[in-house]
Design goal:
The structure is a single chain. With about 270 residues, the protein is of the alpha+beta class. Among the domains are: about 1-50, no CATH class; about 55-95, no CATH class; about 110-200, no CATH class. Helix content is about 30%, strand content about 20%. It has helices at about 35-40, 60-70, 75-80, 85-105, 120-130, 185-190, 205-210, 240-245, 250-255, and strands spanning about 5-10, 15-20, 25-30, 110-115, 115, 140-145, 150-160, 165-170, 180. It has a six-stranded mixed sheet with strand order 5-4-9-8-7-6. Strands 1-2-3 form a three-stranded antiparallel sheet, with no helix packed on it. A hairpin with a 6-residue loop joins strand 8 (about 165-170) and strand 9 (about 180). It is elongated. This is Septation protein SepH.
Length: about 270
C-alpha cells in the first residue's frame, strides 16, 4: 500500500487533502463515520496527524490554535467541541492573524512556471488571468494555513456566475518574496501564461442568445413571389345588349291604335 500524508483541509472543512511523499499525486479524503471510527481505533505513531477528525469536548488553548493553524475555522471547532464560540475566538485570534499575514505574503511571491519563476507576482498573475476571463479580481478572498510538514498552503476563492471556485498554491518564503507553485488544476490554469483560455468550458447558447441573428445569404423566398392581384369583380352586362337581345315591347298606346313597334300600321 502507498502511504499518504495530510496536507490540510478543503474549503468546506469536511474533506482532508492528502498527497504522496514525492508530492506528485494529490488525494481528497472525505470525513465520514467510517473514517472517524478508523481514527478512534488506530491512533498510534505515524498514523496520527495534527488534524484529528474526532474533537474532544474540552480543548486546550494550544489544541484550538493548532487546529486553527491547520485550516479549521472558529465555527467548525466550536460546533465540533461544543465550546463557546467566544472562548474559541479568544485563542484563535492571533493564529488567524498569522494565517492572514501568510496569505498576504504569498500574493507577493512569484509563481513557478515551466521555465522558472515568473517576473510577475502571484497577485499580478491572478489579477491578469481573472480580468482576461471577464471576472472581477476584487471579488476574491485569500486564506492560508500551515501543513503538517511546516509548509504553507494558500487558497484563492472567487465566484464565477453561480459557482464558487477555489485554487490552492504551495507557498515557500524566500528571497524576493519567495515562490508559489500550483497545487491543483485550478491553480495551474490561473498561472498559465495563456490567459485567454476559460477556466471552464462555456456553453455557446448564452452567447448566441445575445448576438444579432445573421442575415441569410439569399433573400427570403417571399421576396421573389409576385404579389397576387386582387380579383376584380365581373363586369355587369350592359343594358344596351339586353335591349338588342330581346324584341322591344310596344307601348300600350301603340297596341290600342294598332301601330307596330317599328312605327308602321297593321
Amino acid at each position: 500500500m502507498r502511504e499518504l500524508k495530510v496536507v490540510g483541509l478543503d474549503v468546506d472543512g469536511r474533506r482532508i487533502i492528502c498527497e504522496t511523499d514525492d508530492s506528485t499525486e494529490k488525494f481528497v479524503l472525505r470525513s465520514d463515520d467510517r473514517l472517524k471510527a478508523a481514527v478512534r481505533g488506530d491512533r498510534v505513531g505515524s498514523n496520527q496527524t495534527t488534524i484529528d477528525v474526532e474533537v474532544h469536548n474540552v480543548l486546550r488553548p494550544k489544541d484550538i490554535q493548532a487546529r486553527i493553524r491547520a485550516g479549521a475555522s472558529v465555527e467548525q471547532i466550536a460546533s465540533a467541541s461544543g465550546a463557546d464560540i467566544e472562548r474559541v475566538e479568544r485563542f484563535a485570534h492571533p493564529v488567524l492573524l498569522e494565517r492572514s499575514r501568510a496569505a498576504e505574503l504569498a500574493t507577493a511571491a512569484h509563481p513557478i512556471l515551466a521555465d522558472g519563476p515568473s517576473v510577475l507576482t502571484l497577485l499580478e498573475t491572478v489579477t491578469t488571468a481573472l480580468v482576461a476571463r471577464g471576472l472581477n479580481p476584487d471579488d476574491t478572498t485569500w486564506d492560508a494555513w500551515r501543513n503538517e510538514d511546516g509548509r504553507w498552503t494558500v487558497q484563492l476563492a472567487w465566484k464565477a456566475g453561480m459557482s464558487d471556485n477555489v485554487a490552492h498554491f504551495r507557498y515557500a518564503p524566500g528571497a524576493h518574496g519567495g515562490t508559489v507553485s500550483a497545487f491543483d488544476d485550478a491553480a495551474s490554469q490561473l498561472i498559465d501564461p495563456d490567459f485567454s483560455r476559460p477556466l471552464r468550458p462555456l456553453a455557446p447558447v448564452p452567447q448566441l442568445a445575445l448576438e444579432e441573428p445573421e442575415q441569410p445569404a439569399h433573400p427570403p423566398v417571399e421576396q421573389h413571389i409576385e404579389p397576387e392581384e386582387e380579383p376584380q369583380p365581373a363586369p355587369k352586362p350592359a343594358r344596351a345588349r339586353k335591349s338588342k337581345a330581346r324584341p322591344a315591347v310596344p307601348a300600350w298606346e301603340d297596341v290600342l291604335l294598332g301601330v307596330r313597334s317599328s312605327g308602321g300600321e297593321r
